[in-house]
Design a protein that fits this description.
Shape: globular
Distance between the termini: 9 Å
CATH superfamily: Response regulator
CATH architecture: 3-Layer(aba) Sandwich
Radius of gyration: 13 Å
Structural class: alpha/beta
Strand order of the largest sheet: 2-1-3-4-5
Number of helices: 5
Number of domains: 1
């Protein structure tokens, strides 16, 4: 799993939460888009959790870039601005899912597990 979020606190909480789940391996993390682009071609991962604030503008091109780098990987976008319109745009660009970042972290874990991302 790869996690990208500009906030160390949020990334740290995600990593802590995900390490509680058996068979989950965090293979990389990033705080800015440049780190994402530099690391991903070298990594093998099944799920990338990317905060929308990290995506380079336009976000749709960034998502398409992620899918070109690792076509088999699922891309989950975390959003502070969760609207059906945002979700539709991100999914049309290739995101597998869009999650509301304001949810409690345990709810995010349940969503990820239920959707069989973990």
């Amino acid at each position: 799993m790869f996690i990208a979020d500009p906030s160390w606190t949020i990334r740290g909480k995600f990593i802590e939460l995900l390490r509680e789940i058996p068979n989950i391996q965090i293979v990389g993390e990033a705080s800015i888009w440049g780190e994402v682009v530099a690391q991903l071609p070298e990594l093998s991962y099944e799920v990338g959790i990317i905060d929308q604030d990290i995506l380079k503008s336009p976000a749709t091109q960034s998502i398409q870039h992620l899918k070109r780098i690792q076509p088999q990987a699922r891309v989950i976008i975390l959003s502070n601005v969760f609207t059906p319109e945002h979700e539709q745009v991100f999914k049309q660009a290739g995101a597998d899912d869009v999650l509301d970042k304001s949810l409690d972290f345990s709810l995010l874990q349940a969503l990820l597990t239920r959707k069989k991302y973990l």
